[in-house]
Specification:
It is built from four helices and no strands. By secondary structure, it is mainly alpha-helical.
C-alpha cells in the first residue's frame, strides 16, 4: 500500500483522531434510555397525583383511626365522652388536612393511640387522654 492510502476496514475520521470520534450508541442503549425516561415520567405523574390527593388520603386514614378508637371503647365509656372525643378529633383532623398540625402533636397522638389500642379496648381514661391530645394538637 502506498503511504497516502487507508487500509480497508480502518477508516480515518475527518478529524484524524479515531479515538475521539463519537460512535452511535447501540440500539439496546437507546431503548434503555427511552425506558428510563418513560418510567421517570410515570413516577412524576404518580407523585403529582399523590400530592393532589394527599389530603383525601390523610382524611381517610384519620377517619379509619377514629372509627377504630370509638369502636374499641369499653361499655363504661359514656356517649358524652365519645362525642367529646369526636369533636376534638374533627378539629384535629381539620388542622392535619390544612397542614397546620405540628409533628410533635401528631407524634404524641400516634403514641397515645398505639398505647390505647394495644390491648384492643379503649377505657374512659384512655379516651380522655386521646381527647386531650387531640385538643392540644387542634390549637
Amino acid at each position: 500500500m502506498s503511504e497516502g492510502t487507508v487500509p480497508p476496514g480502518d477508516p480515518v475520521p475527518p478529524s484524524g483522531f479515531p479515538h475521539l470520534e463519537r460512535k452511535p450508541a447501540p440500539a439496546p442503549m437507546k431503548w434503555g434510555l427511552v425506558g428510563c425516561a418513560f418510567l421517570s415520567l410515570i413516577l412524576i405523574v404518580g407523585l403529582v397525583f399523590l400530592g393532589t390527593r394527599a389530603k383525601d388520603l390523610l382524611g381517610g386514614i384519620l377517619g379509619q383511626m377514629e372509627t377504630q378508637i370509638v369502636g374499641s371503647c369499653t361499655p363504661d365509656v359514656t356517649p358524652a365522652q365519645r362525642e367529646e372525643f369526636r369533636t376534638a378529633w374533627r378539629q384535629f383532623t381539620a388542622r392535619a388536612k390544612e397542614g397546620k398540625l405540628d409533628r410533635q402533636a401528631l407524634a404524641a397522638f400516634k403514641e397515645k393511640t398505639t398505647a390505647a389500642l394495644q390491648d384492643g379496648v379503649v377505657t374512659p381514661q384512655e379516651l380522655k387522654e386521646l381527647t386531650d391530645v387531640a385538643r392540644s394538637g387542634a390549637k
